[in-house]
Amino acid sequence: MKNLIVASTSTLFGENYLDYLLPELELHFKDVTTILFIPFARPGGISHEEYTAKVASALVKIDKNVVGIHSFDNQKEAIQNAEAIFTGGGNTFLLVQQLYELSLMNILKETLENGTPYLGCSAGSNITGISMKTTNDMPIVFTPSFDTLGVVPFNINPHYLDPDLNLKHNGETRETRIKEFHAFNTIPVLGLREGSWLQVKGNDIILKGKLSARWFTAGNDAEELAPETKLNTIV
Question: Under DSSP, is residue 163 helix (H, G, I), strand (E, B) or coil?
Answer without folding.
Answer: coil
